[in-house]
Design brief:
Elements (H helix, E strand, L loop, with lengths): L1 E4 L1 H5 L10 H13 L6 E4 L5 H4 L5 H10 L6 E4 L2 E3 L3 H22 L3 E3 L21 H13 L4 E5 L6 H7 L5 E8 L17 E6 L5 H19 L3 E6 L16 H18 L4 E5 L5 H16 L1
Parallel strand pairs: 1-2, 1-5, 5-10, 6-7, 6-9, 7-8, 9-10
Antiparallel strand pairs: 3-4
Helix pairs in contact: 2-10, 5-6, 8-9, 9-10
Bound molecules: zinc ion (ZN).
């Protein structure tokens, strides 16, 4: 199993006191490196290309970020999204990691986890928001369609926040399915079950203070069957670990066991329909303790 990461993802600086800080990624990397029994192949995330990014974002958006990217200091691109000198390259590396992971999945069925930041699932086709610059999972899904002639790709998002950006980018693309569980109400305020795209969007809302029972019931009854029915040729996971009970930004009560469970279920579906092809990337998660144990649980379950 491959782990993609890059030093630039640690250098992406969001300023003092920001919840999406480099210590999050360090915690994940240290936890995975501490699992000496795991057969992990560590790879440097390659730079994504503008043509890869351009399949998910309009050219004007990429140009805007390039123009705004500071040579020194920090600039704010929305209320809570910050760019530092390393941020643009970190974003290109993160999207590049996902595309390389998709290539490895189609070449040899290799599974990958991309330990990268900034996260991506809030970025729309035209706007950066919610700590996100490029939407890496949407870039990766489009890469699978364009380069590997995939006709059915499922993006599965169990971050506690709705992946509004991913939904925005894929809602009119029937070859990409978007399946999400998230707390509602919560930022960014989208993700109602009634939002169905062209029949390719499946949103599952969890009330605040829901725990393992509600999470597993939602996935077992509605979300996993929707993926099973879609028969994806590739499963891409937006792995945010902020539905964990320790997370300071949300109110769900999952444990790392629940991340192991949902991951094993997704692996099972990938094996049934997609020759085992599954690619995952870090999204949110703001408790370092939760990130450590959840990322290890997730990667262990991906390895089967
Ligand atoms: Zn989140």
């Amino acid at each position: 199993m491959n782990i993609y990461t890059h030093a630039r993802c640690l250098e992406h600086d969001t300023g003092a006191g920001h919840p999406e800080h480099a210590g999050r990624l360090s915690a994940v990397l240290d936890a995975l490196k501490g699992e000496l029994g795991l057969a992990l192949t560590w790879l440097e995330a390659p730079l994504g290309t503008e043509s890869q990014i351009g399949r998910a974002h309009v050219p004007a958006f990429v140009e805007l970020l390039k123009r705004h990217a500071p040579a020194h200091g920090l600039i704010r691109v929305d209320a809570d999204t910050v760019m530092s000198p390393a941020s643009l390259e970190a974003s290109f590396r993160a999207s590049g990691a996902l595309c390389a992971a998709v290539d490895a999945a189609f070449a040899a069925g290799t599974r990958s986890f991309c330990a990268v930041r900034p996260p991506g699932h809030h970025s729309t086709a035209t706007e950066a928001m919610g700590f996100c610059l490029f939407n890496h999972v949407a870039v990766a899904a489009h890469h699978a369609l364009a380069v590997h002639s995939a006709t059915r790709v499922s993006i599965v998002d169990f971050d506690v926040h709705h992946g509004n950006g991913t939904q925005d980018i894929v809602a009119h693309e029937p070859r990409i399915q978007f399946v999400s569980s998230h707390q509602s109400p919560l930022y960014p305020g989208t993700g109602r079950a009634s939002e169905r795209g062209v029949g390719n969007v499946v949103n599952g809302e969890l009330r605040p203070y829901s725990g393992p029972k509600e999470f597993r019931a939602l996935w077992s009854s509605r979300l996993l069957p929707a993926i099973d029915a879609f028969k994806p040729e590739l499963v891409i996971v937006s792995a945010g670990f902020d539905a964990h009970r320790l997370d300071p930004l949300a109110d769900l009560n999952l444990d790392s066991d629940d991340y192991a469970w949902i991951t094993a279920e997704l692996v099972r579906l990938a094996e049934r329909h997609a020759h085992g092809r599954i690619v995952s990337t870090l999204e949110g998660g703001y408790s370092l303790a939760a990130l450590r144990e959840s990322s290890v649980a997730h990667v262990r379950a991906m390895m089967g």
